[in-house]
Structures are given as structure tokens and as C-alpha cells.
């Protein structure tokens, strides 16, 4: 109950900041959290359709959380580029924890370990 009240207060502050046209870092974090919830639950698409969902995704990508997610994806794609043209020996997936998965990709020369979860997709390690 206390957490719900705190969330309501944060959202009220967020609405006020949006109305004023100025978002602080904590406001941007709250907005990202709200957009993530709406996108993950499918609520935004169900209420506003595909166009509304695309608009929300564009806004999310402009927030610090969205930029971090895009950066980690770029870094992961760069690491995966090392696999191009190589023979794969083994690919395994394991559950690291609730909602967190590890993917290990092995070649004769090296091994990539990826993590997929709530924090996004990221390179966990690259070794020989």
C-alpha cells in the first residue's frame, strides 16, 4: 500500500513536469518506468493501436533508459559480429534467475556469453 501511494505521488509529479515541459532525471526515470509497463503489458497497443505504440516507443528511445538499451544492443551486435563466417561448436541457454537468461555461443576460437533479461540484452563475457 505504501509503495502504491509513493508511485501515485511520483506519477503526479511526472504529470506536473510534463505539463511544465521540463523533466528532471528522476522524472525521466519515472516516465520510462510508466512507458515500459504500458509497452510490456500491451496496454498501450490495445488502447492506442500500432501507431500509438510506435509513438511511445519513439519517446522511450529518447529517454536515458531507452538510450542505454539501444547502446547495450549496439555493443551486443558488435560482439556478435565476431561470429560472422565462423563455425559454431555449441549454443546453450541457461536460466540465471527469474527473468534472466544466459546464452553461451562457442566457436573453435572463443566463447561469447550473453545475458537476456529485464535489464536488456548485453554481453556478459568474451573469452578464448
Largest sheet: 4 strands, antiparallel
What would you call the shape? elongated
Mean pLDDT: 87
Q: Rounded to an integer, what's the Rg over CA atoms? A: 19 Å
End-to-end gap: 50 Å
Question: How many beta-strand runs?
Answer: 4
Strand proportion, as a percent range, falls in 15-25%
How many DSSP H or I helices?
Answer: 4
Domain module count: 2
Order of helices and strands: HHHHEEEE
Structural class: alpha+beta
Strands side by side in the biggest sheet: 1-2-3-4
Binned, the helix content reads 55-70%
The low-pLDDT segments are: none
**Assembly classification:** single chain
Topology of this structure?
Blueprint: H1 2-20, H2 25-41, H3 43-62, H4 64-80, E1 90-97, E2 100-106, E3 111-117, E4 120-127
Antiparallel strand pairs: 1-2, 2-3, 3-4
Helix pairs in contact: 1-2, 2-3
Descriptive report:
- By secondary structure, the chain is an alpha+beta fold.
- The chain has 2 domains: 61 residues, no CATH class; 50 residues, no CATH class.
- It has 4 helices and 4 strands; from the N terminus they run ααααββββ.
- The protein has a 4-stranded antiparallel beta sheet with strand order 1-2-3-4, with helices on one face.
- Strand 2 and strand 3 form a beta hairpin.
- Helix 1 packs across helix 2 and helix 2 packs antiparallel against helix 3.
- The longest helix has 20 residues.
- The chain is elongated and about 55 Å long.
- The model has no long low-confidence stretch (mean pLDDT 87).
